[in-house]
Write a structure and sequence with these properties.
The complex is a heterodimer of chains A (about 240) and B (about 250). Helices cover about 40% and strands about 30% of the residues of chain A. Chain A is of the alpha/beta class and about 240 residues long. Chain A has one domain (about 5-240): 3-Layer(aba) Sandwich (Rossmann fold), CATH 3.40.50. Chain A has a six-stranded mixed sheet with strand order 5-6-7-3-8-9, sandwiched between helices. Classes of the chains: A alpha/beta (about 240), B mainly alpha (about 250).
Chain lengths: ~240, ~250
């Protein structure tokens, strides 16, 4: 792998087993009745690409085409059935923001908790704390339990923590619709900053306009396969003409 | 390896501890009050109604020495089983070794246990219970108990992710397990022809050993403790293998 590659995806396929029986009540008759315990299907077939540092890749495709599965594989939470994925550097998954938040804990406590979950040290969170809360614009509520936050405040704080982890790879799944217009603009500004700082970004979205303005290249996944990968205008036009 | 994640481990443990009692008025006092009242009720039933006597020590003391480690075991297993399911949103989002969820859950329960043990210390003073230096054997016994708990928790937490029945099934098993462990009664009351169960039941070995070193003032039965250590190590090795083999599928099935 050359030194400017951030993510290398080599002929990756993912077979999913649909577990039809989640309880013994369903499993035991199925075992005796000779029914299939699990059905499987390919969620991704032979995905092969390299993402260089500083590149922003848009991932498009209809629901269920395998976009989110690909992000999970890159994040390392799910293992490919075939092929290999290598990533270099700290990763910040902006997927399901605030997944590690605990509603009973205060904003402050959750910032530390989530920062450390995302791979920061306590000292790093200390150093960035002011910046994070400034970015989220949440000083008045920082010592309130996050269960009292509005959904916008919740997401803003989670987003602020994630982007202050100094990621080298950013995985974004349809979450830039966070907060109001002003906050969105701020997010995109931050994203541009990341691009300048050579962060590799994978951006899953159904919003073609944001993909067109924000990404360098586009990966179009159709029927769980790579339908197209390349210059954004080419791929986007092809996608739009197809649907 | 785990050392690299020590901050994460401590943060998740703190979350576990802080979050649980934040909404209750008495807060963390419940950790002490719960086993205390459980002990009072049981002590009344078994020393006044069913009359377990001739123990050489007050029944309340005898019971508490067994009940606290048993409660720790039961609570650790029950919470560990849910630790992966409960953290489902994290499982599908970011990778770190998944056993950290199990370890942080067990650590939080150990903190509870230590707090609940304050009452035991007060009991020792109150009943003027004499102790010998052999009391320090509780440390190795405790460590072996934690090994066993950890190994079993790894298996159960992983299985429970695939079939949620495991937690209900194991609830029943735990109930039965408590009665075939000398928690509320002394070994001598158990029918002799079935007493071999205690030899293979690590929890029975631990609890007898605690009583031996804390109340009896003697040394633990090293043969039994050796068996328990062996079983615990096997449990950890097997548990870890199973857990790591299934780990790659956690995010897919949760």
């Amino acid at each position: 792998m050359s030194s400017d590659v951030a993510i290398s995806i080599q002929h990756v396929s993912k077979l999913f087993r649909k577990q039809n029986q989640r309880t013994f009540k369903e499993l035991i008759p199925a075992l005796f009745g000779g029914k299939k315990v699990a059905e499987s299907f390919w969620a991704l077939k032979d995905i092969d690409l390299e993402i260089k540092k500083g590149e922003t890749i848009g991932i498009i495709g209809v629901n269920g085409s395998g976009k989110s599965t690909l992000l999970k594989l890159i994040a390392g939470v799910s293992q490919p059935t075939k092929g290999k994925i290598t990533t270099v550097g700290r990763m910040a998954p902006l997927i399901e923001l605030g997944a590690g938040f605990h509603p009973e804990l205060t904003g402050r406590e959750n910032v530390y908790l989530n920062g450390i979950i995302l791979g920061m040290t306590r000292a790093e969170v200390d150093a960035k704390f002011k910046e994070i809360v400034d970015f989220a614009e949440i000083w008045d509520f920082i010592d309130q339990p996050v269960k009292h936050y509005s959904s916008g405040m919740y997401l803003r704080l989670a987003f602020a923590v994630a982007i202050h982890t100094e990621p080298e790879i950013l995985l974004i799944d349809e979450i830039l619709a966070v907060g109001d217009t002003a906050f969105q603009a701020k997010c995109f500004k931050k994203m541009d900053e990341f691009k300048k700082n050579k962060v590799a970004i994978m951006y899953v979205s159904h919003n073609m306009d944001s993909v067109r303005t924000f990404c360098d290249k586009v990966l179009y996944i159709d029927d769980n396969k790579m339908a197209e990968f390349g210059k954004k205008d080419l791929v986007l036009d092809q996608y739009l003409s197809k649907i | 390896m785990i050392y690299k994640y020590k901050e994460l481990l401590s943060e998740l443990t703190k979350r576990e501890i802080k979050a649980r009692y934040k909404q209750s008025v008495l807060g963390y006092a419940w950790v002490i009050l719960n086993p205390f009242f459980q002990m009072l009720v049981m002590a009344f039933v078994f020393s006044k109604i069913l009359r377990i006597t001739d123990l050489g020590v007050p029944y309340a003391l005898f019971l508490y020495v067994g009940l606290l480690p048993w409660n720790l075991f039961a609570a650790s297993i029950t919470s560990s089983m849910n630790s992966l399911v409960g953290n489902g949103s994290l499982l599908t989002k970011i990778y770190f070794p998944r056993e950290i969820f199990v370890i942080s859950t067990i650590l939080a329960k150990i903190v509870d246990f230590l707090l609940a043990s304050i009452v035991l210390v007060i009991f020792f003073i109150f009943f003027h219970q004499q102790v010998t230096l052999n009391i320090f054997w509780i440390l190795p016994i405790f460590l072996i108990q934690q090994l066993f708990t950890f190994g079993l928790s790894l298996v159960l937490s992983a299985f429970n992710l695939f079939y949620r029945d495991i937690q209900y099934l194991f609830g029943l098993i735990l109930l039965t397990w408590m009665y075939i462990t000398p928690v509320i009664y002394p070994t001598e009351m158990f029918p002799e022809q079935y007493r071999w169960i205690f030899k293979l039941n690590p929890m029975a070995i631990f609890i007898n050993a605690y009583r031996q070193v804390m109340l009896g003032g003697g040394l633990p039965n090293f043969t039994s403790l050796g068996i328990a250590l062996g079983l615990s190590l096997v449990m950890v090795v097997i548990g870890y293998k199973i857990f790591k083999n299934l780990e790659g599928m956690f995010a897919d099935v949760v």
